[in-house]
Amino acid sequence: MASATSSTEANGAASDKDDDLALLALETQFNALTSELAASQGVSNRRAITRGSDNQPSAEETLHPSVREPSDQDATQRAEAILARLYPIERAIMATPAHTIAGLGVKARHAAYVMSQYWTAPIARIDWDEQVVRLLIESVCSIANVALPVSDPGAAESHIAPVSDPNGV
Q1: What is the pLDDT of residue 165?
Q2: Strand, coil or helix: what is 121?
Q3: Which residue of 43, 54, 84, 88 has the smallest Cβ count within 10 Å?
Q4: In which domain, by residue range, is 151 found?
Q5: In the chain, count of helices (H) and strands (E)?
């Protein structure tokens, strides 16, 4: 009977891993599309910087129209097309249960991407509910050994103790 139990447990573990393979595949697609979106936005940001506040074409764009970067409208349409392809992948990540730490890491990275505004300020300067979510996501990413997809302006800052901690630790 013990061998049947261990066999069932082994099959369950394999099944769990298979379920998270779907999440890992979704993460690959998610990462590719978010990289494509960031690159697309980088072109728009570079154009804004090189054109300056008057938004006039650069000398190179005027002399060589073939090197002209796409218009803001083109960049917006490209970003919207990428976001339309990204949406079903994000929905699938949210809908797919995680069965391993790796799968949970996929979900935590997605949550960090969606809630990226929680990393725009040092943790001591964000609201309590934002701190709770941010610290949970950071803990899951740490345990799953995956990097956060957002930068942490308070990385050098020590974590603050919760107000409700009676020991002040």
Answers
A1: 44
A2: coil
A3: 54
A4: 100-169
A5: 5, 0
User: Is 123 found in the same domain as 93?
Assistant: no
Q: How far apart are CA 130 and CA 140, in angstroms?
A: 15
Asked if residues 149 and 113 have their Cβ atoms less than 8 Å apart, the reply is yes
Instruction: Specify whether 92 is located in the same domain as 120.
Output: no
Are 135 and 159 in contact by the 8 Å Cβ rule? The answer is: yes
Q: What is the rounded distance in angstroms from the CA atom of residue 67 to the CA atom of residue 60?
A: 8
In the block, residue with structure tokens 């097309």: 81
Same domain, 130 and 86: no
Structure tokens at 80: 């919207």
Q: Are residues 108 and 165 in the same domain?
A: yes
Burial class (CB in 10 A: 0-12, 13-18, 19+), 151: exposed
Same domain, yes or no: 35 and 89: yes
145: left (phi over 0), alpha (psi -120 to 50) or beta: left
Are 32 and 80 in the same domain? yes
Is residue 100 within 8 A of residue 17, CB to CB? The reply is yes
Q: What's this model's pTM, rounded to 2 decimal places?
A: 0.67
Tokens (6 digits) for 129: 């509910």
